């Protein structure tokens, strides 16, 4: 019994010490040695689901582990920002931008790593993080940082689902990896609701922060403005004032020495001149750089089997791309193609159409289905069987189903102008059915029910 009482007393003493440490400053630290309550709360996120995500990333290794270290740098940057906010007033915008720079850099590096490793065996992992990691920018969002994190979490859900689907039977730790990162974002949303509902809570009783997180020195009191009677009496100043009054006394003659401005030099008649204080004498004859040169050189087209992946990339105006001699373990990845047509003969595991414009794909059979992501004005036709069609962030997509794939599941997200054509009779005719883009939600007492609006149906 005595041991239990000692344990209870120790816990109470720890609570009292923590309360004394936090003080009454609305979660703000009282001096440079304290850590505020909301920083300690953020530390719980770092030691919770996020720590699980880092641990499993290290177990998976490779590109996943490398990217995880970039994400860790972003979370560490958020913590450092919160420590600064807990001790200081909100600084000017130019200083605030410098304080946010480490977070912005970590986000950019994470997304660039995803783009540079599109051929990685773990690309779905990289993309899931790359789409969601902008959530770390919540510290710069007002007045609704919580919903912003939710939107970013949803943005990565598509690729997270692909990870779950791909490794469901292979390796369960990948499912734990997904739960770890998305769980960290859910904990962040709950944390924001409790401590930073409308934006980061700065310490209004502190001193303004500087770019290195240290308080700015107190401003010196402004010097009193000199009055007309106490103005400098130097001879130069007197002569200048005398010259000024003499010029004003000329009346209309004061403008006689001014140059006449022609209509083509008047800024109110030529809005393009307002962006500069210099009036050009004549048009520049220097050749303009074309938009194509500004965009950089085109990348060479790719059509190759890389391991178990057929890569079809940067094809432009090629209507005769044919992939045959395929296997069920292989996948087809079509990336940034324009005005092209791809035919896949045989059965493959999966087909992905990513960031393509005015491109069509015709295929026989797939084991899992076809994914259409970030595309514009694309078409696909199933000749055999495809159990699922995923369409995400796409504007303009027409899918032709075969009789064998008429029961395929069609999942759409953040897309528009979607049409599905189903076979009609045995003469090769199709019935075109548009998919709804607008929905209405109703509360039934327990949850919301969703149905397409009459306009969208």
Question: Quick recap of the structure?
Answer:
The chain has 457 residues and is of the alpha/beta class.
Give me the secondary-structure topology.
Elements: H1 2-22, H2 37-46, H3 49-60, H4 62-87, E1 88-89, H5 93-116, H6 123-132, H7 145-155, H8 157-166, H9 173-195, E2 207-208, H10 235-248, H11 291-294, E3 302-306, E4 309-313, E5 321-323, E6 331-335, E7 341-354, E8 360-373, E9 376-382, E10 388-392, E11 395-400, E12 409-413, E13 416-424, E14 429-434, E15 439-443, E16 448-452
Parallel strand pairs: 1-2, 4-6, 5-7, 6-7, 7-8, 8-9, 8-10, 9-11, 10-12, 11-13
Antiparallel strand pairs: 3-4, 13-14, 15-16
Helix pairs in contact: 2-4, 2-9, 3-4, 3-9, 4-5, 5-6, 6-8, 7-9
Describe this structure in words.
With 457 residues, the chain is of the alpha/beta class. It is 36% helix and 21% strand. The protein has helices at 2-22, 37-46, 49-60, 62-87, 93-116, 123-132, 145-155, 157-166, 173-195, 235-248, 291-294, and strands at residues 88-89, 207-208, 302-306, 309-313, 321-323, 331-335, 341-354, 360-373, 376-382, 388-392, 395-400, 409-413, 416-424, 429-434, 439-443, 448-452. The strands form 3 sheets. Strands 3, 4, 5, 6, 7, 8, 9, 10, 11, 12, 13 and 14 form a 12-stranded mixed β-sheet that branches. Strands 1-2 form a two-stranded parallel ribbon. Helix 3 packs antiparallel against helix 4, helix 4 (62-87) packs antiparallel against helix 5 (93-116) and helix 6 (123-132) runs antiparallel to helix 8 (157-166). The N and C termini lie far apart (70 Å). Mean pLDDT is 80; it is low at 1-5, 18-33, 214-238 and 284-294.
């Amino acid at each position: 019994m005595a041991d239990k009482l000692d344990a209870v007393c120790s816990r109470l003493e720890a609570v009292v010490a923590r309360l004394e440490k936090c003080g009454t400053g609305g979660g703000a630290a009282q001096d440079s040695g304290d850590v505020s309550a909301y920083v300690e709360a953020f530390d719980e996120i770092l030691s919770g689901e996020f720590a699980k995500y880092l641990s499993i990333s290290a177990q998976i290794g490779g590109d996943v582990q490398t990217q995880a270290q970039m994400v860790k740098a972003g979370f560490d940057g958020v913590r450092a920002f919160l420590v600064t906010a807990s001790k200081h007033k909100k600084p000017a915008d130019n200083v605030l931008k410098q304080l946010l720079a480490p977070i912005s850099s970590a986000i950019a590096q994470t997304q660039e790593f995803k783009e540079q490793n599109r051929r990685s065996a773990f690309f779905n992992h990289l993309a899931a993080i790359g789409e969601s990691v902008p959530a770390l920018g919540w510290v710069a969002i007002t007045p609704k940082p919580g919903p912003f994190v939710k939107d970013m979490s949803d943005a990565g859900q598509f690729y997270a689902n692909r990870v779950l689907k791909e490794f469901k039977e292979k390796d369960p730790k990948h499912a734990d990896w997904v739960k770890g990162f998305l769980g960290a974002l859910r904990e962040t949303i709950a944390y924001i609701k409790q401590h930073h509902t409308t934006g980061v809570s700065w310490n209004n009783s502190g001193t303004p922060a500087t770019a290195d997180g240290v308080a700015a020195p107190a401003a010196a009191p402004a010097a009193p403005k000199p009055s007309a009677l106490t103005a400098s009496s130097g001879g130069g100043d007197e002569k200048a004032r005398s010259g000024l009054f003499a010029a004003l006394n000329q009346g209309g003659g004061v403008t006689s020495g001014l140059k006449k401005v022609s209509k083509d030099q008047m800024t109110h008649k030529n809005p393009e001149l307002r962006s500069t204080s210099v009036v050009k004498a004549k048009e520049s004859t220097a050749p303009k750089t074309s938009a194509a040169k500004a965009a950089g050189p085109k990348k060479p087209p790719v059509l190759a089997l890389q391991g178990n992946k057929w890569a079809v990339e940067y094809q432009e105006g090629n209507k005769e791309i044919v992939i045959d001699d395929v296997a069920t373990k292989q996948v087809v990845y079509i990336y940034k193609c324009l005005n092209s047509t791809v035919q896949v003969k045989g059965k493959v595991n999966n087909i992905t159409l990513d960031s393509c414009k005015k491109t069509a794909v015709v295929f026989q059979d797939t084991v899992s289905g076809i994914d259409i992501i970030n595309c514009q004005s694309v078409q696909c036709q199933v000749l055999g069987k495809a159990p699922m069609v995923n369409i995400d962030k796409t504007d303009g997509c027409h899918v032709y189903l075969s009789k064998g794939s008429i029961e395929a599941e069609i999942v759409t997200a953040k897309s528009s102008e979607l049409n599905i054509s189903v076979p009609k009779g045995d003469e090769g005719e199709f019935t075109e059915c548009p998919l709804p883009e607008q929905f209405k939600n109703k509360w039934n007492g327990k949850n919301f029910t969703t149905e397409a609006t009459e306009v969208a149906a």
